[in-house]
Specification:
Elements: H1 2-13, H2 24-42, H3 45-70, H4 73-91, H5 97-109, H6 111-122, H7 125-136, H8 152-165, E1 173-178, H9 181-194, E2 198-203, H10 210-224, E3 228-234, H11 235-238, H12 246-252, E4 255-260, E5 279-282, E6 286-290, E7 307-309, E8 312-317, H13 318-333, E9 356-362, H14 370-381, E10 385-389, H15 397-408, E11 412-418, H16 424-432, H17 434-439, E12 443-447, E13 450-452, E14 456-459, E15 463-467, H18 473-478, E16 481-487, H19 490-504, E17 506-508, H20 514-521, H21 523-530
Length: 535
Protein backbone atom coordinates (compact mmCIF):
# COMPACT_ATOMS: atom_id res chain seq x y z
CA UNK A 1 0.00 0.00 0.00
CA UNK A 2 2.75 2.42 1.00
CA UNK A 3 4.80 1.52 -2.07
CA UNK A 4 1.82 2.06 -4.40
CA UNK A 5 1.08 5.44 -2.85
CA UNK A 6 4.75 6.39 -3.21
CA UNK A 7 4.77 5.49 -6.91
CA UNK A 8 1.47 7.33 -7.49
CA UNK A 9 2.82 10.50 -5.88
CA UNK A 10 6.05 10.15 -7.88
CA UNK A 11 4.07 9.95 -11.13
CA UNK A 12 2.00 13.00 -10.13
CA UNK A 13 5.11 14.97 -9.25
CA UNK A 14 6.49 14.45 -12.76
CA UNK A 15 3.21 14.84 -14.62
CA UNK A 16 2.81 18.04 -16.69
CA UNK A 17 0.38 20.60 -15.29
CA UNK A 18 -2.00 20.21 -18.23
CA UNK A 19 -3.79 16.92 -17.66
CA UNK A 20 -6.85 15.52 -19.42
CA UNK A 21 -9.45 16.01 -16.71
CA UNK A 22 -11.93 13.71 -18.45
CA UNK A 23 -9.79 10.63 -17.68
CA UNK A 24 -9.86 8.87 -14.31
CA UNK A 25 -6.22 9.72 -13.73
CA UNK A 26 -6.90 13.37 -14.62
CA UNK A 27 -9.68 13.55 -12.05
CA UNK A 28 -7.46 11.86 -9.46
CA UNK A 29 -4.64 14.31 -10.25
CA UNK A 30 -6.99 17.32 -9.92
CA UNK A 31 -8.23 16.09 -6.53
CA UNK A 32 -4.68 15.59 -5.26
CA UNK A 33 -3.69 19.09 -6.40
CA UNK A 34 -6.70 20.57 -4.58
CA UNK A 35 -5.78 18.59 -1.44
CA UNK A 36 -2.20 19.84 -1.67
CA UNK A 37 -3.40 23.45 -1.94
CA UNK A 38 -5.76 23.01 1.02
CA UNK A 39 -3.05 21.33 3.09
CA UNK A 40 -0.59 24.09 2.24
CA UNK A 41 -3.16 26.77 3.14
CA UNK A 42 -4.37 25.28 6.43
CA UNK A 43 -0.84 24.57 7.62
CA UNK A 44 0.62 27.86 6.43
CA UNK A 45 2.43 30.14 8.85
CA UNK A 46 -0.29 32.79 8.83
CA UNK A 47 -3.05 30.28 9.70
CA UNK A 48 -1.04 28.63 12.49
CA UNK A 49 0.00 31.95 14.04
CA UNK A 50 -3.53 33.35 13.74
CA UNK A 51 -4.89 30.24 15.44
CA UNK A 52 -2.35 30.54 18.28
CA UNK A 53 -3.22 34.24 18.74
CA UNK A 54 -6.93 33.38 18.80
CA UNK A 55 -6.33 30.67 21.43
CA UNK A 56 -4.36 33.11 23.61
CA UNK A 57 -7.03 35.80 23.39
CA UNK A 58 -9.81 33.25 24.00
CA UNK A 59 -7.97 31.90 27.06
CA UNK A 60 -7.52 35.39 28.51
CA UNK A 61 -11.17 36.29 27.94
CA UNK A 62 -12.37 32.91 29.25
CA UNK A 63 -10.44 33.36 32.49
CA UNK A 64 -11.85 36.85 32.96
CA UNK A 65 -15.43 35.76 32.24
CA UNK A 66 -15.10 32.73 34.53
CA UNK A 67 -13.91 34.99 37.33
CA UNK A 68 -16.85 37.31 36.71
CA UNK A 69 -19.50 34.58 36.98
CA UNK A 70 -17.84 32.57 39.77
CA UNK A 71 -17.26 35.37 42.24
CA UNK A 72 -19.99 37.01 44.29
CA UNK A 73 -21.69 40.32 43.78
CA UNK A 74 -18.99 42.26 45.66
CA UNK A 75 -16.49 41.27 43.00
CA UNK A 76 -18.88 42.48 40.33
CA UNK A 77 -19.28 45.80 42.10
CA UNK A 78 -15.50 46.17 42.19
CA UNK A 79 -15.37 45.26 38.51
CA UNK A 80 -17.87 47.94 37.55
CA UNK A 81 -15.92 50.49 39.60
CA UNK A 82 -12.74 49.46 37.78
CA UNK A 83 -14.55 49.80 34.43
CA UNK A 84 -15.72 53.32 35.37
CA UNK A 85 -12.17 54.25 36.41
CA UNK A 86 -10.86 52.82 33.12
CA UNK A 87 -13.45 54.81 31.16
CA UNK A 88 -12.41 58.01 32.96
CA UNK A 89 -8.76 57.32 32.15
CA UNK A 90 -9.59 56.63 28.51
CA UNK A 91 -11.59 59.88 28.32
CA UNK A 92 -8.41 61.82 29.19
CA UNK A 93 -6.22 59.96 26.68
CA UNK A 94 -4.54 62.09 23.98
CA UNK A 95 -6.10 60.17 21.10
CA UNK A 96 -8.86 60.60 18.54
CA UNK A 97 -12.50 60.93 19.63
CA UNK A 98 -13.66 57.72 17.87
CA UNK A 99 -10.83 55.80 19.52
CA UNK A 100 -11.85 57.05 22.97
CA UNK A 101 -15.57 56.45 22.32
CA UNK A 102 -14.96 52.87 21.15
CA UNK A 103 -12.94 51.94 24.23
CA UNK A 104 -15.28 53.71 26.67
CA UNK A 105 -18.39 51.99 25.29
CA UNK A 106 -16.54 48.66 25.30
CA UNK A 107 -15.24 48.78 28.88
CA UNK A 108 -18.60 49.97 30.26
CA UNK A 109 -20.77 47.50 28.30
CA UNK A 110 -18.52 44.41 28.43
CA UNK A 111 -15.80 45.07 31.02
CA UNK A 112 -14.61 41.43 31.18
CA UNK A 113 -13.89 41.52 27.45
CA UNK A 114 -12.67 45.06 26.81
CA UNK A 115 -10.58 45.74 29.93
CA UNK A 116 -8.11 42.92 28.99
CA UNK A 117 -8.15 44.09 25.35
CA UNK A 118 -7.54 47.68 26.42
CA UNK A 119 -4.68 46.55 28.66
CA UNK A 120 -3.09 44.75 25.71
CA UNK A 121 -3.83 47.13 22.84
CA UNK A 122 -5.26 50.44 24.00
CA UNK A 123 -2.77 52.07 26.32
CA UNK A 124 -0.34 53.20 23.63
CA UNK A 125 2.81 51.84 25.29
CA UNK A 126 4.15 50.46 22.02
CA UNK A 127 3.46 53.78 20.27
CA UNK A 128 5.38 55.66 22.97
CA UNK A 129 8.28 53.25 22.49
CA UNK A 130 8.28 53.91 18.72
CA UNK A 131 8.04 57.67 19.20
CA UNK A 132 10.89 57.56 21.74
CA UNK A 133 13.09 55.74 19.24
CA UNK A 134 12.26 58.27 16.50
CA UNK A 135 12.99 61.18 18.86
CA UNK A 136 16.39 59.70 19.75
CA UNK A 137 17.17 58.96 16.08
CA UNK A 138 15.98 62.06 14.17
CA UNK A 139 16.26 62.52 10.43
CA UNK A 140 18.94 64.86 9.05
CA UNK A 141 17.76 68.42 8.32
CA UNK A 142 17.94 70.54 5.18
CA UNK A 143 18.58 74.28 5.05
CA UNK A 144 15.77 75.26 2.66
CA UNK A 145 13.25 77.84 3.95
CA UNK A 146 9.73 77.44 2.47
CA UNK A 147 8.94 81.15 2.87
CA UNK A 148 11.60 81.92 0.24
CA UNK A 149 9.90 79.74 -2.39
CA UNK A 150 6.16 79.90 -1.70
CA UNK A 151 3.54 82.46 -0.63
CA UNK A 152 2.92 82.68 3.16
CA UNK A 153 -0.32 80.65 3.04
CA UNK A 154 1.51 77.72 1.40
CA UNK A 155 4.80 78.14 3.26
CA UNK A 156 2.98 77.81 6.61
CA UNK A 157 1.85 74.29 5.65
CA UNK A 158 5.42 73.18 5.03
CA UNK A 159 6.70 74.96 8.13
CA UNK A 160 4.00 73.44 10.36
CA UNK A 161 4.94 69.91 9.29
CA UNK A 162 8.63 70.68 9.76
CA UNK A 163 8.14 72.08 13.27
CA UNK A 164 5.79 69.39 14.58
CA UNK A 165 7.17 66.29 12.82
CA UNK A 166 10.77 67.24 11.97
CA UNK A 167 10.70 66.84 8.17
CA UNK A 168 12.62 69.08 5.79
CA UNK A 169 11.73 71.01 2.63
CA UNK A 170 13.86 70.92 -0.51
CA UNK A 171 13.94 73.29 -3.48
CA UNK A 172 16.35 71.77 -6.00
CA UNK A 173 14.51 68.57 -6.83
CA UNK A 174 12.78 67.32 -9.96
CA UNK A 175 9.31 66.04 -9.04
CA UNK A 176 7.38 63.94 -11.59
CA UNK A 177 3.91 62.43 -11.18
CA UNK A 178 3.56 58.80 -12.31
CA UNK A 179 -0.10 58.31 -13.20
CA UNK A 180 -0.23 54.50 -13.31
CA UNK A 181 1.42 51.46 -11.77
CA UNK A 182 2.85 50.68 -15.20
CA UNK A 183 4.55 54.10 -15.35
CA UNK A 184 5.87 53.61 -11.83
CA UNK A 185 7.35 50.21 -12.75
CA UNK A 186 9.09 51.55 -15.88
CA UNK A 187 10.62 54.41 -13.89
CA UNK A 188 11.61 52.03 -11.08
CA UNK A 189 13.45 49.75 -13.51
CA UNK A 190 15.15 52.80 -15.00
CA UNK A 191 16.55 54.09 -11.69
CA UNK A 192 17.54 50.60 -10.51
CA UNK A 193 19.62 50.21 -13.68
CA UNK A 194 21.31 53.55 -12.92
CA UNK A 195 22.34 52.60 -9.36
CA UNK A 196 26.10 52.64 -8.75
CA UNK A 197 26.48 52.52 -4.94
CA UNK A 198 23.31 51.28 -3.23
CA UNK A 199 19.63 50.43 -3.63
CA UNK A 200 16.95 50.68 -0.94
CA UNK A 201 13.57 48.98 -1.46
CA UNK A 202 10.83 49.12 1.17
CA UNK A 203 7.47 47.51 0.37
CA UNK A 204 4.27 46.48 2.12
CA UNK A 205 3.56 43.73 -0.46
CA UNK A 206 5.94 41.74 -2.63
CA UNK A 207 4.30 38.94 -4.58
CA UNK A 208 5.93 36.44 -6.89
CA UNK A 209 5.11 37.09 -10.53
CA UNK A 210 6.41 38.91 -13.59
CA UNK A 211 6.83 42.29 -11.86
CA UNK A 212 8.92 40.78 -9.06
CA UNK A 213 10.88 38.51 -11.44
CA UNK A 214 11.96 41.46 -13.60
CA UNK A 215 12.88 43.46 -10.49
CA UNK A 216 14.84 40.51 -9.12
CA UNK A 217 16.82 40.17 -12.36
CA UNK A 218 18.02 43.77 -12.01
CA UNK A 219 18.82 43.32 -8.30
CA UNK A 220 20.89 40.20 -9.06
CA UNK A 221 22.83 42.05 -11.76
CA UNK A 222 23.46 45.08 -9.57
CA UNK A 223 24.52 42.98 -6.57
CA UNK A 224 26.99 41.15 -8.83
CA UNK A 225 28.38 44.54 -9.89
CA UNK A 226 29.10 45.42 -6.24
CA UNK A 227 26.05 47.61 -5.58
CA UNK A 228 24.76 47.26 -2.00
CA UNK A 229 21.11 46.17 -2.09
CA UNK A 230 18.82 46.41 0.96
CA UNK A 231 15.26 45.09 0.96
CA UNK A 232 12.76 45.76 3.78
CA UNK A 233 9.29 44.23 3.60
CA UNK A 234 6.34 44.07 5.97
CA UNK A 235 6.01 40.53 7.30
CA UNK A 236 2.21 40.44 7.47
CA UNK A 237 1.88 41.99 4.00
CA UNK A 238 4.08 39.32 2.40
CA UNK A 239 3.54 36.31 4.68
CA UNK A 240 1.44 34.32 2.19
CA UNK A 241 3.16 35.62 -0.94
CA UNK A 242 6.84 34.68 -0.56
CA UNK A 243 8.66 31.40 0.18
CA UNK A 244 9.73 30.61 3.74
CA UNK A 245 13.41 30.82 2.88
CA UNK A 246 13.08 34.15 1.04
CA UNK A 247 15.72 35.94 3.15
CA UNK A 248 18.19 33.09 2.56
CA UNK A 249 17.51 33.21 -1.19
CA UNK A 250 18.17 36.95 -1.19
CA UNK A 251 21.39 36.51 0.80
CA UNK A 252 22.62 33.98 -1.75
CA UNK A 253 22.39 36.57 -4.54
CA UNK A 254 23.93 39.38 -2.46
CA UNK A 255 20.75 41.16 -1.31
CA UNK A 256 20.36 41.95 2.39
CA UNK A 257 16.70 41.33 3.21
CA UNK A 258 14.71 41.88 6.41
CA UNK A 259 11.07 41.50 7.37
CA UNK A 260 9.59 44.34 9.38
CA UNK A 261 7.64 43.60 12.57
CA UNK A 262 7.60 39.82 12.32
CA UNK A 263 4.13 38.29 12.63
CA UNK A 264 4.56 36.16 15.76
CA UNK A 265 2.17 34.03 17.87
CA UNK A 266 2.45 36.41 20.83
CA UNK A 267 -0.39 38.71 21.85
CA UNK A 268 1.19 42.18 21.69
CA UNK A 269 0.01 45.58 20.44
CA UNK A 270 2.90 45.69 17.95
CA UNK A 271 0.94 43.41 15.61
CA UNK A 272 -1.20 46.43 14.61
CA UNK A 273 1.70 48.59 13.43
CA UNK A 274 2.47 47.66 9.83
CA UNK A 275 5.00 49.10 7.36
CA UNK A 276 2.64 50.33 4.62
CA UNK A 277 5.32 52.33 2.81
CA UNK A 278 6.42 51.89 -0.80
CA UNK A 279 9.90 53.37 -1.26
CA UNK A 280 12.66 52.83 -3.82
CA UNK A 281 15.88 54.88 -3.52
CA UNK A 282 19.09 54.66 -5.56
CA UNK A 283 22.33 56.39 -4.50
CA UNK A 284 20.41 59.09 -2.61
CA UNK A 285 19.78 60.81 -5.96
CA UNK A 286 16.71 59.05 -7.39
CA UNK A 287 13.62 57.93 -5.48
CA UNK A 288 10.06 56.74 -5.95
CA UNK A 289 7.20 56.52 -3.46
CA UNK A 290 3.44 56.17 -3.84
CA UNK A 291 0.67 53.59 -3.71
CA UNK A 292 2.00 50.73 -5.87
CA UNK A 293 3.56 47.61 -4.38
CA UNK A 294 5.52 44.94 -6.27
CA UNK A 295 2.82 42.55 -7.51
CA UNK A 296 1.34 41.84 -10.93
CA UNK A 297 -2.08 43.40 -10.24
CA UNK A 298 -0.45 46.82 -9.73
CA UNK A 299 0.70 46.85 -13.36
CA UNK A 300 -2.46 45.09 -14.66
CA UNK A 301 -0.82 41.84 -15.68
CA UNK A 302 -3.69 40.28 -13.74
CA UNK A 303 -7.02 42.03 -13.23
CA UNK A 304 -8.96 40.70 -10.21
CA UNK A 305 -10.94 43.97 -9.84
CA UNK A 306 -11.04 45.45 -13.32
CA UNK A 307 -8.40 48.03 -14.24
CA UNK A 308 -6.10 48.76 -11.28
CA UNK A 309 -5.45 52.52 -11.12
CA UNK A 310 -2.47 53.49 -9.02
CA UNK A 311 0.01 56.36 -8.81
CA UNK A 312 3.47 57.31 -7.55
CA UNK A 313 5.91 60.20 -7.55
CA UNK A 314 9.50 60.28 -8.82
CA UNK A 315 12.13 62.52 -7.21
CA UNK A 316 15.54 63.44 -8.52
CA UNK A 317 17.85 65.62 -6.45
CA UNK A 318 18.13 66.60 -2.81
CA UNK A 319 14.64 65.42 -1.86
CA UNK A 320 15.45 61.81 -2.76
CA UNK A 321 17.90 61.58 0.14
CA UNK A 322 15.14 62.26 2.65
CA UNK A 323 13.38 59.05 1.57
CA UNK A 324 16.72 57.23 1.94
CA UNK A 325 17.00 58.59 5.49
CA UNK A 326 13.48 57.36 6.26
CA UNK A 327 14.44 53.89 5.01
CA UNK A 328 17.58 53.84 7.18
CA UNK A 329 15.56 54.95 10.21
CA UNK A 330 13.11 52.04 9.87
CA UNK A 331 15.84 49.56 8.91
CA UNK A 332 17.73 50.38 12.12
CA UNK A 333 14.51 50.19 14.15
CA UNK A 334 14.28 46.62 12.88
CA UNK A 335 17.75 45.65 14.13
CA UNK A 336 19.94 47.07 11.36
CA UNK A 337 23.01 49.24 11.85
CA UNK A 338 23.25 51.62 8.91
CA UNK A 339 24.84 55.07 9.23
CA UNK A 340 23.19 58.02 7.44
CA UNK A 341 26.58 59.50 6.55
CA UNK A 342 27.65 56.37 4.63
CA UNK A 343 24.81 56.86 2.14
CA UNK A 344 25.07 60.56 1.36
CA UNK A 345 25.36 61.32 -2.37
CA UNK A 346 28.99 61.56 -3.46
CA UNK A 347 28.15 64.71 -5.39
CA UNK A 348 25.09 66.92 -5.37
CA UNK A 349 23.37 67.09 -8.74
CA UNK A 350 23.13 70.53 -10.29
CA UNK A 351 19.35 70.82 -10.58
CA UNK A 352 17.42 74.04 -10.93
CA UNK A 353 13.80 73.13 -10.40
CA UNK A 354 10.76 75.19 -9.58
CA UNK A 355 8.72 74.71 -6.45
CA UNK A 356 9.13 72.92 -3.14
CA UNK A 357 9.11 69.25 -2.17
CA UNK A 358 8.84 67.70 1.29
CA UNK A 359 9.18 63.91 1.40
CA UNK A 360 7.80 62.78 4.76
CA UNK A 361 6.85 59.69 6.68
CA UNK A 362 4.10 58.79 9.07
CA UNK A 363 4.31 56.66 12.18
CA UNK A 364 1.85 55.01 14.58
CA UNK A 365 0.35 57.72 16.76
CA UNK A 366 -2.37 58.16 19.38
CA UNK A 367 -2.96 61.69 18.09
CA UNK A 368 -2.91 63.18 14.60
CA UNK A 369 0.13 61.99 12.65
CA UNK A 370 2.05 63.62 9.81
CA UNK A 371 -0.35 62.60 7.02
CA UNK A 372 -3.49 63.71 8.85
CA UNK A 373 -1.91 67.05 9.76
CA UNK A 374 -0.82 67.59 6.16
CA UNK A 375 -4.27 66.71 4.77
CA UNK A 376 -6.19 68.92 7.21
CA UNK A 377 -3.80 71.86 6.68
CA UNK A 378 -4.06 71.53 2.90
CA UNK A 379 -7.87 71.40 2.96
CA UNK A 380 -8.16 74.29 5.42
CA UNK A 381 -5.88 76.40 3.23
CA UNK A 382 -7.73 75.67 -0.02
CA UNK A 383 -9.50 78.59 -1.74
CA UNK A 384 -10.85 77.08 -4.97
CA UNK A 385 -10.66 73.28 -5.13
CA UNK A 386 -9.84 70.10 -3.20
CA UNK A 387 -9.55 66.86 -5.21
CA UNK A 388 -8.68 63.49 -3.62
CA UNK A 389 -8.41 59.82 -4.54
CA UNK A 390 -8.49 57.02 -1.98
CA UNK A 391 -9.38 53.32 -2.08
CA UNK A 392 -10.88 53.47 1.44
CA UNK A 393 -12.81 56.46 2.76
CA UNK A 394 -13.15 56.10 6.54
CA UNK A 395 -12.01 59.56 7.70
CA UNK A 396 -11.67 60.65 11.30
CA UNK A 397 -13.82 63.59 12.57
CA UNK A 398 -11.14 66.25 12.00
CA UNK A 399 -10.75 65.25 8.35
CA UNK A 400 -14.51 64.99 7.83
CA UNK A 401 -15.00 68.43 9.40
CA UNK A 402 -12.29 69.96 7.20
CA UNK A 403 -13.85 68.51 4.02
CA UNK A 404 -17.39 69.56 4.97
CA UNK A 405 -16.32 73.04 6.05
CA UNK A 406 -14.43 73.61 2.80
CA UNK A 407 -17.44 72.52 0.71
CA UNK A 408 -19.81 74.71 2.75
CA UNK A 409 -17.49 77.66 2.16
CA UNK A 410 -17.80 77.28 -1.61
CA UNK A 411 -14.64 75.26 -2.31
CA UNK A 412 -15.08 72.61 -5.03
CA UNK A 413 -14.43 69.41 -3.02
CA UNK A 414 -14.37 66.11 -4.93
CA UNK A 415 -13.33 62.62 -3.82
CA UNK A 416 -12.89 59.57 -6.07
CA UNK A 417 -13.28 56.06 -4.59
CA UNK A 418 -13.52 52.63 -6.29
CA UNK A 419 -16.67 51.22 -7.83
CA UNK A 420 -15.22 47.69 -7.73
CA UNK A 421 -13.85 46.95 -4.23
CA UNK A 422 -11.04 44.66 -3.16
CA UNK A 423 -12.55 44.32 0.34
CA UNK A 424 -16.34 44.32 0.40
CA UNK A 425 -16.91 45.15 4.07
CA UNK A 426 -14.53 48.13 3.87
CA UNK A 427 -16.32 49.27 0.70
CA UNK A 428 -19.57 49.13 2.67
CA UNK A 429 -18.06 51.38 5.35
CA UNK A 430 -16.65 53.67 2.66
CA UNK A 431 -20.10 54.15 1.09
CA UNK A 432 -21.70 54.65 4.48
CA UNK A 433 -19.39 57.63 5.02
CA UNK A 434 -20.69 59.33 1.87
CA UNK A 435 -23.86 60.65 3.50
CA UNK A 436 -22.50 63.40 5.82
CA UNK A 437 -20.08 64.53 3.11
CA UNK A 438 -22.74 64.69 0.39
CA UNK A 439 -25.06 66.66 2.67
CA UNK A 440 -22.35 69.31 3.06
CA UNK A 441 -21.82 69.63 -0.68
CA UNK A 442 -18.81 67.34 -1.16
CA UNK A 443 -18.94 65.62 -4.55
CA UNK A 444 -18.12 61.91 -4.49
CA UNK A 445 -17.30 59.86 -7.57
CA UNK A 446 -16.78 56.12 -8.02
CA UNK A 447 -14.14 55.00 -10.52
CA UNK A 448 -16.03 52.81 -13.00
CA UNK A 449 -13.21 50.99 -14.93
CA UNK A 450 -12.17 49.08 -11.80
CA UNK A 451 -10.30 49.60 -8.53
CA UNK A 452 -8.57 52.91 -7.78
CA UNK A 453 -5.72 52.36 -5.33
CA UNK A 454 -4.16 55.79 -5.86
CA UNK A 455 -3.66 57.97 -2.75
CA UNK A 456 -3.51 61.63 -3.81
CA UNK A 457 -4.75 65.04 -2.69
CA UNK A 458 -4.43 68.33 -4.60
CA UNK A 459 -5.66 71.77 -3.55
CA UNK A 460 -6.10 74.77 -5.87
CA UNK A 461 -4.09 72.94 -8.52
CA UNK A 462 -0.73 73.98 -7.06
CA UNK A 463 -0.07 72.03 -3.83
CA UNK A 464 -0.46 68.28 -3.71
CA UNK A 465 0.24 65.07 -1.80
CA UNK A 466 1.18 61.79 -3.50
CA UNK A 467 1.95 58.81 -1.30
CA UNK A 468 0.87 55.61 0.42
CA UNK A 469 -1.63 56.87 3.03
CA UNK A 470 -5.33 56.07 2.65
CA UNK A 471 -8.06 58.27 4.13
CA UNK A 472 -8.81 55.72 6.85
CA UNK A 473 -7.95 55.12 10.49
CA UNK A 474 -5.29 52.47 9.93
CA UNK A 475 -3.23 54.70 7.64
CA UNK A 476 -3.79 57.84 9.69
CA UNK A 477 -3.09 56.34 13.13
CA UNK A 478 -1.52 52.85 12.99
CA UNK A 479 0.67 52.41 9.90
CA UNK A 480 4.11 53.57 8.86
CA UNK A 481 3.47 55.59 5.67
CA UNK A 482 5.42 57.64 3.15
CA UNK A 483 4.53 60.48 0.82
CA UNK A 484 5.60 63.73 -0.81
CA UNK A 485 4.07 67.15 -0.23
CA UNK A 486 4.92 69.41 -3.16
CA UNK A 487 4.11 72.95 -4.31
CA UNK A 488 4.57 74.56 -7.71
CA UNK A 489 6.22 71.57 -9.41
CA UNK A 490 5.36 69.74 -12.63
CA UNK A 491 3.84 66.97 -10.51
CA UNK A 492 1.03 69.33 -9.46
CA UNK A 493 0.19 70.15 -13.07
CA UNK A 494 0.35 66.49 -14.12
CA UNK A 495 -1.86 65.40 -11.22
CA UNK A 496 -4.44 68.09 -12.09
CA UNK A 497 -4.58 66.78 -15.65
CA UNK A 498 -4.98 63.21 -14.39
CA UNK A 499 -7.93 64.25 -12.21
CA UNK A 500 -9.70 65.74 -15.23
CA UNK A 501 -9.41 62.38 -16.97
CA UNK A 502 -10.54 60.49 -13.88
CA UNK A 503 -13.72 62.55 -13.50
CA UNK A 504 -14.67 61.64 -17.09
CA UNK A 505 -14.60 57.89 -16.33
CA UNK A 506 -16.14 58.06 -12.85
CA UNK A 507 -19.78 58.09 -11.78
CA UNK A 508 -20.96 60.87 -9.47
CA UNK A 509 -22.90 59.71 -6.42
CA UNK A 510 -25.89 61.51 -4.91
CA UNK A 511 -27.98 61.49 -1.73
CA UNK A 512 -30.69 59.56 -3.57
CA UNK A 513 -28.48 56.71 -4.75
CA UNK A 514 -29.76 53.39 -3.44
CA UNK A 515 -26.22 52.19 -2.69
CA UNK A 516 -25.59 55.22 -0.43
CA UNK A 517 -28.91 54.89 1.41
CA UNK A 518 -28.51 51.12 1.84
CA UNK A 519 -24.95 51.43 3.18
CA UNK A 520 -25.80 54.21 5.65
CA UNK A 521 -28.72 52.21 7.08
CA UNK A 522 -26.86 48.90 7.31
CA UNK A 523 -26.92 47.72 10.98
CA UNK A 524 -23.50 46.06 10.65
CA UNK A 525 -21.99 49.35 9.55
CA UNK A 526 -23.65 51.22 12.43
CA UNK A 527 -22.19 48.71 14.87
CA UNK A 528 -18.72 48.83 13.28
CA UNK A 529 -18.76 52.63 13.23
CA UNK A 530 -18.92 52.68 17.04
CA UNK A 531 -15.61 50.81 17.15
CA UNK A 532 -14.07 52.22 13.95
CA UNK A 533 -11.39 54.07 15.93
CA UNK A 534 -10.03 50.88 17.55
CA UNK A 535 -10.41 48.32 14.72
Amino acid sequence: MTSSLYHAMKIIAHTPKKVNNSSNFGKFYTKVQKMKKLFKYYFSRVIIISLLLFIQLAAILACCCTAFFCFDRYFRIVLWLVSIAAAMRIASMPCSIPCRCGWIIGVLALPMVFIPLYTLYGRGGAIRKIRSYLKNNPLPKSTAHPENYAPPRIARQFTALAETEGFSSYCNSVCVYLATGEAMFEKMKSILERAERYIFIEMFIISQGEMWNKTLEILKKKAAQGVSVYLLRDDLGTICLLPKDFDRQMKNIGVESRKFNSFSPTVTPDINYRDHRKIVVCDGLYAITGGANIADEYINLISPYGYWKDSAVYLKGEGAMNLADMFIQLWNMNGGKLDYNDFLPEKKPEIKADGLVMPFGDYPSCTAGSSLKAFVNMINGAEKSVYATTPYLIPDPSLTSALCRAAENGVDVRIITPLIPDKKYIHLMTRANYLPLLRSGVKIYEYTPGFIHSKTLICDGNICYIGSANLDYRSLYLHFESGVLTYGTNACKELSEDFEELFKCSEEMSLNDKAVIKASKNPIYRFLRIFSGIL
